[in-house]
């Protein structure tokens, strides 16, 4: 059971390392507090809302649903936040490119028919690179609208193609006004940031763990480890176990902290959140183990690893919302742990159940296991290759 | 009974051959010394024996366990003291010992008692709770040894365990090792300090440039230099000296009995007192001033010098 003691030792060292401990546990809470203060008003107080902004709309759909969405929901119900302006597609693109307009949506011709027949459709979000939280609001409204449609499947922006399949069977209610109001935003901006930040912090913890791992590799204790009964697989399991425990502690501090202190709603499915968190942590730690096994020196990691992490964080939606990327990139980001996790958290926040996120959970664990296996294979071969 | 058999061990790092066909055996209960200068290939040899990495070719047997093929099986019986301090600096001595003990699958009361016992052996019971960072070099070295003997290894392999520490700690370590050996532990001890090896080891292999150039008991090795003492003369260095001295020396000694390196003249002789005045006179007559004369009893340094023409610690 050497791996268990290896994990225990790593945790002990982290807790002893005051700087590491602060970054891991206190920093997230602190940053969330700062953000909480920034977003806090918006959440509780209706007086202080975001400045009103103009939403460009290209409506290629002739059906009734797009009309309701634009003219009723966006133009009237959201009138104190959003001003609607209609464009042609080319026009809208030019306006956004020239920064005359910050954000716009394009409703595809099949919008109404697709929604009524329960098929997928897309509302494309266009924005300037730095649109603030406008897209989150627009997206929330559209998603919420879509949920009101009887048998629906719509996907907007963030996921590109992710579906919402909560059957909402009150056919007589095409949409409830109240559900589109600001109080019950499906996924509020603060929610988005809490999830995105939580995911990013976990990523950073993994980076920290990998840094420690690589640092240890350069020290003589590393060789001594393998002069004991410890095998390579037990070594990597131990490393991963320690990091997983650490990440889980941090994750639940963030989740419980944000929901207790700032009232962030992580969705109705507690089981879903727990499972998804564990799955994400396994995925990210698996990737970490692979990096830790492949990269030989801390210097190498500081160059390649940090850059990789930044890119991962950005692609995963932790720095800028996902919709600024082309669809294929968004789909591809499901293969990076934080991308998949964030998208799943957002789903859970907007009401998805445990079973809805099971594919993501399974995918995360499978991916994490693959990363781990690659790392282990590399580690075993390295011993032969390096010295033989 | 041979506990360890090393046969024609070779190791190349790329093009460079660090170990070129090393063979020796170590009997159960014996203390075997591997003496050689820095870069001789001691650590490389040791690291292959401990199963850290496989040899390019050759055979290592621990009793009947093939170390090359099944290192994990052999490692249970081997305690290793690495050349560098291999401990977690932010953990206390006791925590380190416990950790390493656990990796050897010790636990519970056995581990607890063993850690106490080892702390006693390395003389650090009163500092057990202190972090390694707060320790002196010598104390770290002692913990480094402690971590290797927790699991009662059959064979204790130590790679230069006294490098860079104060004389007191060094003595403590040497005595500890001696006692462990007397209590029945088989020991392989590498060093470039001949005094340590002379003090500790029943049998000694002298290693240089990846080869064991001599092997035997201290007595046997001394016979390589026919129990001759060594005279070291420091000469005033002036151009052309060596050319003038060499023919003079040739008259007095056979060619392989003296060496001149820089301004150091070394002469091997059975009875240095008898020949010294003659030697000094002969050298002085060439017009070379002698600044110091030193007579050294037969020792391993002399053996090494005789075999390689170099000093152990150059
Ligand atoms: N991993 C390595 N890669 C390349 N050369 C090495 C490596 N390890 C040792 N060497 C070389 O092999 C020789 C023997 O080294 P080593 O066994 O450490 O000597 P010693 O322990 O006797 O001082 C040295 O010349 C050293 O530079
Ligand atoms: Mg060495």
TrEMBL record, chain A:
Keywords: Cell membrane, Membrane, Transmembrane, Transmembrane helix. Coiled coil: none annotated. It is found in: Cell membrane. It comes from the Bacteria. InterPro entries: ABC-2_transporter_component (IPR051449), ABC2_TM (IPR013525). Residues 19-377 form the ABC-2 type transporter transmembrane domain. It is a multi-pass membrane protein. The keyword Membrane applies. The chain crosses the membrane at residues 20-39, 192-214, 235-264, 270-295, 307-325, 357-381. Gene3D superfamilies: abc type-2 transporter like domain. PANTHER family: LINEARMYCIN RESISTANCE PERMEASE PROTEIN LNRM, MEMBRANE COMPONENT OF ABC TRANSPORTER YHHJ-RELATED. This is ABC transporter permease. It comes from Neobacillus paridis. The lineage of its organism: Bacteria, Bacillati, Bacillota, Bacilli, Bacillales.
Automatic annotation (TrEMBL), chain B:
Gene3D superfamilies: P-loop containing nucleotide triphosphate hydrolases (3.40.50.300). Residues 4-234 form the ABC transporter domain. Keywords: ATP-binding, Nucleotide-binding. It comes from the Bacteria. PROSITE patterns: ABC_TRANSPORTER_1 (PS00211), ABC_TRANSPORTER_2 (PS50893). One of its GO terms (molecular function) is ATP binding. InterPro entries: AAA+_ATPase, ABC_transporter-like_ATP-bd, ABC_transporter-like_CS, P-loop_NTPase. This is ABC transporter ATP-binding protein. It comes from Neobacillus paridis.
